[in-house]
Amino acid sequence: MPCVITAENLAARVCHSMGLAPDDHAEALAEMLRPALRATASAAIAATRAVCLEIAEDEAERCRALGVTAAQQTALNIAARVRRREVLPGV
Q1: Are 10 and 33 within 8 A, CB to CB?
Q2: Is residue 68's pLDDT more than 60?
Q3: Using CA atoms, how far apart are residues 39 and 52, in angstroms rounded to an integer?
Q4: How many angstroms separate the CA atoms of 42 and 77, rounded?
Q5: How wide is the angle at C-alpha 2 spanned by C-alphas 27 and 12, nearest 5°?
Q6: For the segment 4-48, what is each residue's pLDDT rounded down to a tens digit?
Q7: For 3, left (φ over 0), alpha (ψ -120 to 50), or beta?
Q8: Burial code of 8-23, b = ≥16 C-beta within 10 A, e = fewer?
Q9: CA atoms of 55 and 37, how far apart (whole Å)
Q10: Which of 15, 33, 52, 61 has the lowest tally of Cβ within 10 angstroms?
């Protein structure tokens, strides 16, 4: 299983690769990296939601072509509504 990347881990790796003493530089570097890691995580979550919901909508279209039951149609409508709310706020 891959390790979790934290600002502290990444700062220590950068210090080692640049030949800097981690005790002197890692904390300041970690402070600079935290916002970037948060932004990256948020973007990854949004992209994952978008892809999952797009797949659900594609499946909805496929099921509609085959003739779906009322329960299936309801589930597919919910997936479409979630996509509009979670992935495209304000739309």
Answers
A1: yes
A2: yes
A3: 20
A4: 26
A5: 20
A6: 889 999 999 999 999 999 889 999 999 999 999 999 988 988 888
A7: beta
A8: eebbbebbeeeeeebe
A9: 27
A10: 61
Residue 68: phi and psi, rounded to 5, are -100, 165
The residue type found at 42 is: S
- Two tokens, residue 27: 């904390």
Token duo for residue 56: 């659900």
Query: Cβ–Cβ contacts within 10 Å for residue 82, how many?
Result: 14
- Residue predicted with more confidence, 34 or 74: 34
Residues counted in the chain = 91
- Give the pLDDT of residue 62: 74
What global pTM score does this model have?
0.59
Joined tokens for residue 20: 């800097």
Q: Rounded to whole angstroms, how far apart are CA atoms 57 and 91? A: 17
